[in-house]
Amino acid sequence: MCYREQFDWFVMYVSITGLRPKNISSYFRFWLHTVPALKSAQKSEGVVFCDVKRRGKYQHSLTVWETKEFMTLYRDGHTHTRAMKVFPSIATGHVHGFESKEIPTWDEALAKWDHTFGNEEEKFD
Q1: What residues form DSSP beta bridges with 57?
Q2: What is this structure's pTM?
C-alpha cells in the first residue's frame, strides 16, 4: 500500500502557471530563466509531478507537490526567486494553486486555470 493511500485526508498541492512572453526577444529571455527554474523544480524535495506545455501563446507549467510547504520552499528558493524578479518585464500571466487528492491531468488543471482567469488564449487569437 502506498503511503498516501493510508490517509484519506492526505492532499497534495497543485500549481498551474501560464505565462505569455511579451515579444520575440522576451521569448528567449523567458526560456533563459525558465529552464533553470524547471530543472530546480524537478529536483526539489516533495515534488511529485513537474511538466511544461505550450497552449496557444502561453507557456504553462504544472507542478504537484506532496504539501504546500514543499512548494513554498521551492518558490522561495534562489532559482525561482531570480526568475520571478525578471518575469514581469518579459511576460504576463497568472498562477493558480489548489489542493487535490490526485494528480490532475493537463486538461483538468488547464480547466481550473481557465475557470479562474478565463481562457486567455482566446483573447489573443
Answers
A1: none
A2: 0.85
* Rounded Cα gap, residues 10 and 100, in angstroms: 9
What DSSP string describes the chain?
--GGGG-TT--EEEEEEEEEESSHHHHHHHHHHHHHHHHHHHHSTTEEEEEEEEETTEEEEEEEESSHHHHHHHHTSHHHHHHHHHHHHHEEEEEEEEEESSPPPHHHHHHHHHHHH--HHHHH-
The answer to whether 12 and 100 are in contact (CB under 8 A) is yes
The domain locations on the chain are: 3-102
Low-confidence ranges of the chain (pLDDT < 70): 1-9, 120-125
Which pLDDT score is estimated for 10? 76
Specify the CATH class of 3-102 in words: alpha beta
Q: Assess contact for 33 and 82: CB atoms under 8 A.
A: yes
Q: How far is CA 109 from the centre of its chain?
A: 10
Alpha-carbon span 93 to 43, nearest angstrom: 24
Chain centroid to CA 39: how far?
Answer: 13
